[in-house]
Amino acid sequence: MAGTPRRKKAPLDFRNPQLADALQTQDMAALAFALRHGPTVVPLMRPGQRDDPRDSGEVWTYRDPNTGDVALLLFSDAAHKPAALPPAVGLHSSAWLRAFLGAHGDEITTVFFDIAGPHPMQATPADVIAALDA
After folding, report:
1. H or E stretch at 104
2. Using CA of residue 110, residue 59, residue 45, residue 24, what is the dihedral sign?
3. Measured between alpha carbons, how far is 90 from 93 in angstroms, rounded to an integer?
4. Pairing mode, if any, of strands 121-123 and 108-113?
5. What class does CATH assign to 17-48+57-133?
């Protein structure tokens, strides 16, 4: 249509307000609901290729140099990600999180939510999987 202004796509919103609310109240049932029904912000070592929907990027995990324990850090909002982490983030579904923890849950010892605040929380991979499967 000639002369019709093109609509700009709304920018992707890298947050999950329900997850933020659940973390604020430290409510496990609300956390489980938010994880099942909303996206999770995940720090990435390498962002996915825009032209390949199968490429979701390379997830960044933290390995404790003293113990070797591996932690997965998840965020309710990209604004809560500490600047010291890699700059790229991904916005992933509950199905992606379930598949990722299913594949790597034996290696990951802890899942941290909003580790730098404002309302941090942690769980085991098994607890997160149970919440996703509920």
Report:
1. helix 94-104
2. negative
3. 10
4. antiparallel
5. alpha beta
Alpha-carbon gap, residue 28 to 31, rounded angstroms: 5
What is the CA 74 to chain-centroid distance, rounded?
Answer: 4
Burial 8-37 (b: 16+ CB within 10 A, else e): eeeeeebbbebbbebbeeeeeebbbbbbbe
Peptide bond into 118 cis (omega under 30): yes
Going through the chain in order, the beta strands assigned E by DSSP cover 40-46, 58-59, 61-63, 70-74, 88-92, 108-113, 121-123
Instruction: Give the global pTM.
Output: 0.85
Q: How do the domains of the chain map onto residue ranges? A: 17-48+57-133
Instruction: Give the pLDDT of the chain (134 residues) as one tens digit per residue.
Output: 555 555 554 456 899 999 999 999 999 899 999 999 999 999 998 776 667 666 567 899 999 999 999 999 999 999 999 999 999 998 999 999 999 999 999 999 999 999 999 999 999 999 999 999 98
